[in-house]
Amino acid sequence: MRGRPSPTASLVAALLVVALPAVAALPEEGILTVDRYTSEKGRALAVAHAGALLELSTGIYHCLPWVEVRKESIGFFKPRHLSADDRYLSIRIYIDQDPSPGFAKLPLPDRASSMFSRYVGPVLRRMAQSAALQADPAVDGFSIILEWLKQTGGRGGGRAVNETIAIFIDQPTAKDYVAGRIRVQDLAHRVRVLGWDGETALGSLRVSGWDDNFVSTFKVKGYVPQQGVSCQ
After folding, report:
1. Is residue 36 part of a domain?
2. What pairs with residue 90 in β-bridges?
3. Are 14 and 201 in contact (CB under 8 A)?
4. Hey, is 3 helix, strand or coil?
5. How would you class 219 by CB atoms within 10 Å of its CB: exposed for 0-12, middle for 13-18, buried for 19 or more?
6. CA distances from 42 to 66, 113, 165, 166, 217 (A)
7. Is 219 inside a domain boundary?
8. What is the pLDDT of residue 12?
9. Considering the domain boundaries, does residue 221 fall inside one?
10. Per the structure, how many domains does the chain have?
């Protein structure tokens, strides 16, 4: 499950200020270290919410074992499309999934919508579990980068590449969703989504959202969380 292809540093650098190593990480390794931040605001957030970052990384690692957090892929990053020093709590994950001809045949916006519906809500709720983090005015929003191996739908050949979507959620929208004031359908219409096919930037994507309970119901055969870890 851990150790799949990942996008190059140039792709990631186009999304976030800090380029990230493409290495699978243990929970503590998934967090960007304080010395890697590019502003005092980022460093202050990293120190203030260190416990919440570790809880997030640990929860993803143990409770979603089929996804992979890259090294230094969790932290308070500045999205490159924003001019001010806005800091978004960000996570980048690789999703390991079985090949599906039906999924491969879907147009990219539909594949992106499927991944959005399946993962963004559950991951955002985990990111916003900390009341202190939600209440911190210095946290301007949340960003979730999802990547998965591009499927060819039976057309072999070519170099393995990932498809990637980056979802940017401002703080008011995130609070509305986590509090239950809006549903995932509404969330999809209020966020910014950027897409990549390998290293090729596709620009903004319009996605749809729908209820999907995959994350809460899927179980990896034979996998038992570490003793003392609660995945509720």
Report:
1. yes
2. 75, 143
3. yes
4. coil
5. exposed
6. 30, 31, 23, 20, 35
7. no
8. 45
9. no
10. 1
